[in-house]
Write a structure and sequence with these properties.
This is AraC family transcriptional regulator. By secondary structure, the chain is of the alpha+beta class. It folds into three domains: 6-158, Regulatory protein AraC (Jelly Rolls, Sandwich); 163-212; 217-278, Orthogonal Bundle (Arc Repressor Mutant, subunit A). 44% of the residues lie in helices and 22% in strands. The chain is built from ten helices and twelve strands. The protein has helices spanning 92-102, 119-133, 137-155, 167-181, 189-196, 200-211, 215-232, 237-243, 249-259, 264-272, and strands at residues 6-10, 18-25, 29-33, 39-46, 48-52, 55-59, 63-67, 73-77, 83-90, 109-111, 115-117, 156-158. A six-stranded antiparallel β-sheet has the order 1-2-9-4-7-11. It has a four-stranded antiparallel β-sheet with strand order 3-8-5-6. Strand 1 and strand 2 form a beta hairpin. The radius of gyration is 19 Å and the shape is globular. The two termini are 14 Å apart. Residues 274-283 have low confidence and may be disordered.
C-alpha cells in the first residue's frame, strides 16, 4: 500500500456477524478472489472497476458493488485518481435472517446484479460505519437491516444452486477437495490431473468453468481464507503463513493484501480491537 493510500479493516463487538472496511485506493489491484461473506461496498469518491461474471463493472459515487459469497471477482481503480469506499461484509446467516424478515425470497438470498446506483442504500452503509465508530449499536443495526432489505428487494432474488452436473464439473470439484486436503504440499497440475484420470488441459478448463479461476489462483485464495481463520484464533501471522503453505510471512502479506485489502497484522488487530463508545475508529 502506498503512502497516499489507506485502509482500515475491523469488526465491532457491538454488532456480530459483520466486518467493515474503510479504504482509499489509487494503485491498488485486487487479485481474482472470493469472499465467504456478502460484500456491500458504497463508493464515496472516484470510481472502482472490477471483473465479475465475464464483464468489467464500474461503480462511482452513490453506487454500490454487490458480491455474493464464493463469487469470483477482482478490483482496481476505474480512474487515475482511484476510489474511496466503505464496505460491509455481512455473513450468510445475518443476510438470511434479514431476508426472511423483510422479503419474499425463498432459498438462499443473493444479489442479482453486481453493481447498482442506489444513493439511499449507500447512505445506509455509511451510517452503519458511522454508528459503530460512535458505539451506537442500535443505530448501526437499524441501518444495516434497512440497507440489506432494500438491496434484496430491489436487486435480489434466490441464488441458483451450484451443482457439478457434468463429469468434467465433478472432476473439478474433486480437484478442489484434493487441493484443500493438501494445501501445504499441493501436487502439480499434471500430477493432479493424472490422479483424477484426466488431462491437464481438460482439468484446467473444467476448473476455470466451475470455480471462476485456475487451480493455482484458487489455492492462493483458499490459503488466505484459512489464514484469516488462524489469525482470528490468535495465531501470529508468521505461523499462520507456514500453516497454510506459504513459504514465509512476506508471501502471506503480499497475497493477503491483494485479496483482503490490508496486511495480515492490520487485519488481526482490527478484528480483535474493541472501540470505546464515542471514539472514532482509527484511520
Amino acid at each position: 500500500m502506498t503512502d497516499d493510500e489507506s485502509a482500515h479493516y475491523w469488526r465491532s463487538p457491538k454488532l456480530p456477524g459483520i466486518d467493515l472496511l474503510r479504504a482509499r485506493y489509487i494503485r491498488k489491484t485486487f487479485a481474482r478472489h472470493t469472499h465467504e461473506t456478502y460484500v456491500i461496498a458504497a463508493i464515496t469518491e472516484g470510481v472502482e472497476a472490477f471483473h465479475h461474471g465475464g464483464s468489467v463493472h464500474r461503480v462511482g459515487v452513490g453506487g454500490l458493488a454487490l458480491i455474493n459469497p464464493d463469487t469470483t471477482h477482482t478490483g482496481h481503480a476505474g480512474i487515475p485518481e482511484g476510489w474511496r469506499y466503505q464496505v460491509l461484509y455481512p455473513d450468510a446467516g445475518l443476510v438470511a435472517r434479514i431476508a426472511a424478515e423483510t422479503t419474499t425470497i425463498r432459498g438462499t438470498p443473493g444479489f442479482a446484479v453486481p453493481a447498482v446506483h442506489d444513493p439511499v442504500s449507500a447512505r445506509h452503509v455509511l451510517a452503519v460505519h458511522r454508528a459503530l465508530e460512535e458505539g451506537n449499536a442500535l443505530a448501526a443495526d437499524t441501518h444495516l437491516h434497512a440497507a440489506v432489505a432494500r438491496l434484496l428487494r430491489s436487486h435480489g432474488g434466490p441464488l441458483p444452486e451450484r451443482s457439478a452436473r457434468t463429469a468434467a464439473a465433478r472432476t473439478a470439484q474433486r480437484a478442489r477437495v484434493l487441493l484443500e486436503e493438501r494445501m501445504t504440499d499441493p501436487p502439480s497440475l499434471e500430477g493432479l490431473a493424472a490422479e483424477l484420470g484426466t488431462s491437464s488441459f481438460a482439468l484446467l478448463r473444467a476448473f476455470r468453468r466451475l470455480h471462476g479461476m485456475p487451480p493455482h489462483a484458487w489455492l492462493t485464495d483458499a490459503r488466505v481464507h484459512r489464514a484469516r481463520a488462524l489469525l482470528d484464533s490468535g495465531l501470529p501471522p508468521a505461523q499462520a503463513a507456514t500453516a497454510v503453505g506459504f513459504t514465509d510471512q512476506a508471501h502471506l502479506t503480499r497475497h493477503f493484501g491483494r485479496i483482503v485489502g490490508v496486511p495480515p497484522g492490520a487485519y488481526q488487530r482490527g478484528r480483535a480491537r474493541t472501540y470505546k463508545t464515542g471514539g472514532p475508529a482509527p484511520s
